Backbone:
């Protein structure tokens, strides 16, 4: 079974002809147009993408074989996945959240814990860094903070902004 990553969630139906409304979990939702097939529930079901439209921050997708609202209704609240290999050729300095989570965070050789979550503020990402027995560090990924990401060896080198540890 190929490794899968989450790309979004079906939150509702759209219209009467089987389209679904998806909240994308991608920095660039337009990449959705490049997916031929998406999966639900870890490859238990697959759906061929027939068309993609945009509605504000959501994506409206028509899957082959879903031709009415009753069929589309069954997909509500399902998480969508694609094969991780589709993202093998990311530009340098671009990483999948799935690859960042679990990396150990260092500044000048001192460990601050591991990345347990990543979320976006709209202007930048925040790495949630946790170390057992300590409060989580919310590390803004802004210019000058992220010095090195080494997915293969499992670490991130950072420069923690002045005053952040005092909060």
Residues:
């Amino acid at each position: 079974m190929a490794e899968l990553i989450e790309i979004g969630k079906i939150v509702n139906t759209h219209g009467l002809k089987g389209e679904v409304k998806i909240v994308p979990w991608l920095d660039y939702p337009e990449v959705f147009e490049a997916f031929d097939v998406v999966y639900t529930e870890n490859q238990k079901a697959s759906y061929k993408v027939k068309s993609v439209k945009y509605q504000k921050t959501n994506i409206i997708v028509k899957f082959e074989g879903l031709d009415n609202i009753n069929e589309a209704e069954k997909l509500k609240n399902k998480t969508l996945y694609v094969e991780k290999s589709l993202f093998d050729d990311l530009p340098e300095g671009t990483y999948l959240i799935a690859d960042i989570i679990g990396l150990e965070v260092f500044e000048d050789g001192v460990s601050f814990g591991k990345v347990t979550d990543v979320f976006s503020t709209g202007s930048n990402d925040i790495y949630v860094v946790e170390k057992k027995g300590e409060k989580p560090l919310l590390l803004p990924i802004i210019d000058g903070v992220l010095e090195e990401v080494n997915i293969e060896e499992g670490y991130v080198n950072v420069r923690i902004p002045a005053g952040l540890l005092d909060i």
